[in-house]
Structure formats: structure tokens, C-alpha cells
Amino acid sequence: MKHVGILAHSAEGSSLCYLALCHAGASKLGDHLHPDVTMDAISMGASIPDWERENFPPIRATLAKSVGRLSAADCDFFVCPDNTAHLALEVDGPDLALPGLHIADVVTKEAVERGYRKLGILGTKWTMARPMYFRAALSKGLTAIAPNEPDRNYINGVIFSELCKGIFNDNSRMEHVRIMEDLKSSGCDAVVLGCTEIPLLISSEQSPLPILDSTRLLAKYALGVALGENSLPSWRGGPMWP
Predict the structure, then answer these.
(1) CA 238/CA 45 separation, integer angstroms
(2) How far is 69 from 188, CA to CA, in rounded Å?
(3) pLDDT bucket at 242, cuts 50 / 70 / 90
(4) CB 3.0–4.6 Å: which of 16, 42, 226, 240 could bond 2 by disulfide?
(5) Which pLDDT does position 128 carry in this prediction?
(6) What's the DSSP call for residue 143?
(7) CATH 3.40.50.1860 is the classification of domain 4-102+217-226
(8) Bridge partners for 118 per DSSP
């Protein structure tokens, strides 16, 4: 089995990815069994000022340092259970020390397999406004839309003031459901939970649309790589789509 590296950025999403990977491993391999996993985390707080300035190169350098430490721990590849972090990983720069799965590629592949055509994108304000998910969808013949700007700002505020701190409340859940209803009215046939903490707030039973849970899909696909069911990735940072 391949050794999985988890490049952590936010604590809640990275923890969920780790648990999902271990649980999925046990379901395939037997009780308490899973591939070797190493996680590396550099405090996200140090990067927040650069996120606010949309100054991505220094964030990429910080993430690259983590990938280097995962390589030194003998990981074979990495996953980053943080959608927004991929905006920085896509910045031009030296090759990362390990190949990695791109979360938007994993999610849109799953969308194609399930037969979805139009995706609603939820995530941080950067994920919802930047073209990453829209290009990933287009590369597979799909379309994608994000909520309007006031709703994007609301979701972003909940992510950083609540979800990243392990706070989950019913009012925020109800507002997310309302926003999903609006996406459904706009013709979306599925919604991407494109912030790795949102699955902790919204379950498939509560969503008015089928969900694409980026955190658990990444963990599932990583398990497939570790077991040789999926190909080892080749992406080492930089742009994935034109």
C-alpha cells in the first residue's frame, strides 16, 4: 500500500479527511486497518493576512514546506483537504516535493460519474469567486455557478467565525439550506461542499440537492490510490486547467 500524506491547512477539514480515510480503509481492509497516513500542519493563522490580500505565493511557499516534510516522512503522494488552499498550490513555482491529488479534479470526476450536469459551488469567498472549480467543471463538460455576492460573503463569514472553530448552529444550517434552494432554482442538479468544513454542518439528508462532499470524496479517492485502484497522481502544483 502507498503511504498517504495529508497536507493540513484548516484543522476541522483535515481532521475529517483523516477520519474518513481511516474509516474507509477499515471498511475495505478489516477492523482498525488503513494505509499509513502522515499529516503535516502549519498553522493557517499565519497565512490569513496573505489570504485577505490575495497574496498567494507566500501561502504556496508555506504549503510547499509541509509537502516537503511529508516527502521526508516517506509519503508517496499528498492530499490537501482544503479547497481554497489549491488556489495557492496552483500558483506557478518549483515543483512540489510530492505528487498530489487536486481536490476539484476529484470532485468533478465524481460529478461526471453520477451524471450531474450543473453544479452549485459553496466554499470560501475565494473558492466561490475564483475560476478553479468553474474550469475544472468545464474541462469535463459540466457547468458550475456560485451564489450571489451577499450569500458568498455570508458563507465565508460562517466558515471562518464558526466552522473552522468547531462551531455548528442551526441558524447557519438553515441559511445554507436556503442558499442551496436558490441554486436548485437556478438549475443546479448537485451542490459541491467546496469547503472541507461544510460537510460538518450540512448532511445529505438536510440538503435540497444531492451533495458532492469534497472532504470525503478526496479521502475515498486517496484510499483508492493507496490500494492501487486509482492511478498515482502526477500533479506537483501549478495550473491544472487553462
Answers:
(1) 23
(2) 40
(3) confident
(4) 226
(5) 97
(6) E
(7) yes
(8) 143
CA distances from residue 240 to 81, 103, 135, 136, 222 in whole angstroms, order as listed: 17, 11, 9, 8, 18
- With b meaning 16 or more CB within 10 Å and e meaning fewer, what string describes 67-84? bebbbeeebbbbbbbbbb
Name residues whose C-beta falls within 8 Å of residue 212's C-beta, 6 or more positions apart in sequence. Answer: 107, 110, 111, 116, 119, 190, 191, 192, 193
Structure confidence by residue, pLDDT tens digits, 60-73: 999 999 999 999 99
What amino acid is encoded at 156 in this protein?
N
The pLDDT of residue 12 is 86
In this structure, the chain runs to a length of 242
Asked if pLDDT for residue 223 goes beyond 80, the answer is yes
Q: What is the CATH number of domain 103-214?
A: 3.40.50.1860
CATH 3.40.50.1860 domain residues, the chain: 4-102+217-226, 103-214
Burial class (CB in 10 A: 0-12, 13-18, 19+), 231: exposed
Contacts of 153 (CB under 8 A, 6+ apart): 125
